[in-house]
Amino acid sequence: MELAAALLVTTHGALAAAVVLALATFLYFLYAAWLAPSATRRRLRGSGFGGPAPSFPLGNLPEIAASLAESNGTLPAGAGVTSDIHGAVFPYFARWRAAFDKVFVYWLGAEPFLYVADPEFLKSATAGAMGRLWGKPDVFRRDRMPMFGRGLVMAEGDDWARHRHIIAPAFSATNLNDMIGVMEETTAKMLGDWSEAVAAAGRSAGAVVDVERGVVRNAAEIIARASFGIGDEGGARVFQKLQAMQTMLFRSNRLVGVPLARLLHLRKTYDAWKLGREIDALLLDIIDSRRGSQHDAGGQEKKNKDLLSLLLAGNDETGEAAGKKRLMTSRELVDECKTFFFGGHETTALAVSWTLLMLAAHPEWQRALRDELREVTDDGPLDAAALGKLTKMGWVLSEVLRLYPPSPNVQRQALHDVAVDGAGTTIPRGTNMWVDVVAMHHDEALWGPDANEFRPERFAAGAQGGCRHRMGYLPFGFGGRICVGRNLTGMEYRVVVAMVLRRFQLAVAPEYRHAPRVMLSLRPSDGVQLLLTPLDQHTK
Ligand code: HEM
Question: So where does this one cross the membrane (predicted)?
Fold first, then answer.
């Protein structure tokens, strides 16, 4: 009897707890998904920002999904390899711009995003000391936690400053020069695979190869070796798991910004978390064993060439900086290794892939780069001095990053209310900003009537390519948070493109479908199929 009564009380207690929990969840959802965003929307409208009407809790996500489904990312039939791509990659922005111009508000779930494609507005809101009023959006920090952890891309405030201070010197020219050998070695492997594919096709006219696949694999290997070394078993396993994580996160289709939407993807969230723990444990092992072996038997610092060793050296408790700044913990170093991998390989691989496509479509530039390469290197080694003299190749890189920016947007979140100079308006604290880099890079008002044409020579006049506003060209972001790895990209790009150009003649294959698409980065939807002809079968 007593047992039954106790059970009844327990059951009632559990039921009451469940009802309270359900009610609390409902109230939270009501607040986060309707009340708070509706109040923010009123404030934004009061500040003069218009935009498409959202319907909470999804905001403008349904319209975005419908617009993408309708356009299917495909450029008009017969357009060939046109670089007039903004309407295809961001069809919803193209539509809203027609109605609301270059600054407006749209909603990802319950998160307000201030769309900006006006460099003057961007300057007024972020330039100089105002940069400190902005951080990285919380909504993406949560969403991308398995990739970047609290590494530099997502760090804030003092933590960010400390990490950047330690990390930036590791990317100095001298350190990067030591990585050329690794780049040559892995790229030679990729070219060997392509040569085999051509030989297997058995045709003197060459063979069709999806170059993007090899270029991405190559870049992943380069960044893994350059970041933490993958010569030993531990490194190779981290590399495999990082690649698995990349695939997993790509496949998941999350309702960004919708409160509690993660509950709909519990399995994926758990799998990513579990894989993340495995990666962290392996990296921690590598870091701990490196910490113990930074010096050789004679007490001299070992000549390790990867970024992790450089960070450990810069972080060395016996170093001169000790005591002046707080050092990086092993946990923080783990996040930085992951950040380099996820932030550094696909972006660079895309720059190379889009370049090979552009060179295939513009044989005159292929010839110009090959001539420059021969003049500068005399078919000799690709050392740092020679790479630095590849001026035209630098223009081509800049033009490709303009037309096909691998990071198609840059984001910020207002940490305080931001009074915008000149615009006479205030951006409320918590508002996210979405800078549409693709739109600015293709804007005729900034670049002239040939904005959508591939004309690398526009960069002959300077690093801004003749853009009419200095904040109109942002392939690596802006302000204090500008990409820390851009010099590494510049070097890797030159090595890989030079080696490809020495080995193959490139032409666009008939099966290539030009359908650039944004999946975090700006990617070709179905690879980059090129016709590769070995150069010894061609007039060099
Ligand atoms: C074509 C190649 C690349 C592109 C287009 C690119 C683009 C970007 C962009 C747009 C940002 C954000 C800047 C901002 O918020 O203003 C960024 C930040 C960053 N990138 Fe890159 N990146 C490239 C290569 C690399 C490489 C090779 C690495 C490292 C190995 C790297 C590491 C980072 C890191 C750590 C940050 C965060 C910097 C900070 O917040 O202080 N990136 N990159």
Answer: 12-36
The alpha carbon of 312 and the centre of ligand 1 are apart by a number of angstroms equal to 21
Cβ(261)–Cβ(206) under 8 Å? Answer: no
CATH class of 48-69+90-298+305-314+329-534: mainly alpha
DSSP helix/strand/coil, 523: strand
How far apart CA 304 and CA 183 sit, in angstroms, is: 16
* Neighbouring C-beta atoms of residue 52, cutoff 10 Å: 18
pLDDT tens sequence across 199-230: 998 866 789 999 999 999 999 899 888 887 76
**What's the average model confidence in pLDDT over 16-40?**
85
Whether 489 lines ligand 1, by a CB cut-off of 6 Å, is yes
ipTM of the complex: 0.99
Output the CA 51–ligand 1 centroid distance in Å: 30
- The answer, yes or no, to whether residue 321 has pLDDT greater than 80, is no
Fill in the amino acid letter for 41.
R
pLDDT score recorded for residue 539: 44
Q: Tell which residue, 233, 234, 246, has the closest CA to residue 275.
A: 246
Instruction: Say yes or no to pLDDT of 117 above 60.
Output: yes
Cα angle 377-379-380, degrees, rounded to a multiple of 5: 65
Which tens digit of pLDDT belongs to each residue from 280-317?
998 888 888 877 665 555 555 555 568 888 888 766 55
Pocket test for ligand 1, best of 172, 473, 476 (most atoms within 8 A of CB): 476
In this structure, are residues 61 and 109 in contact, taking their beta carbons and an 8 Å threshold?
yes
Q: How many CB atoms lie within 10 A of CB 344?
A: 24
Q: How far is the CA of 364 from the centre of ligand 1 (A)?
A: 31
Gap between the Cα atoms of 110 and 56, Å rounded = 7
Contacts of 359 (CB under 8 A, 6+ apart): 365, 366, 369, 396, 501, 506
Please answer whether residues 49 and 432 qualify as being in contact, where contact means their C-beta atoms are separated by less than 8 angstroms: no
Whether the CB of 355 sits within 6 Å of ligand 1: no
Whether residue 57 is preceded by a cis peptide bond, meaning omega within 30 degrees of 0, is: yes
